[in-house]
Write a structure and sequence with these properties.
Blueprint lengths: L5 E3 L3 H6 L5 H6 L21 E3 L6 H14 L6
Parallel strand pairs: 1-2
């Protein structure tokens, strides 16, 4: 069994701006209970294999970083 933990660490403000379904607004209105970062605490991982910040890294850069880790770990053939 191979497991690689990837943490996409994106600021809450960016998540709100990119929310196409209005879930953050619904959570603000109390329509969604226990929404991480709004109505419940979000606990960031402490021992991730890879941390990405999608507010500064583009999709292609994030994909390349993930593929690199998977190749380094022998999950994918390089």
């Amino acid at each position: 069994h191979r497991f690689v933990e990837v943490f996409v660490d994106t600021p809450i403000e960016v998540c709100r701006q990119r929310d196409p379904n209005g879930q953050y607004e619904a959570a603000d209105r109390g329509e969604i209970a226990d929404y991480p970062g709004v109505s419940s605490t979000y606990e960031q991982p402490t021992d991730m294999d890879l941390r990405l910040d999608a507010s500064v890294q583009g999709v292609d850069e994030c994909v390349d970083a993930i593929l690199t880790v998977l190749e380094e770990r022998g999950v994918l053939d390089g």
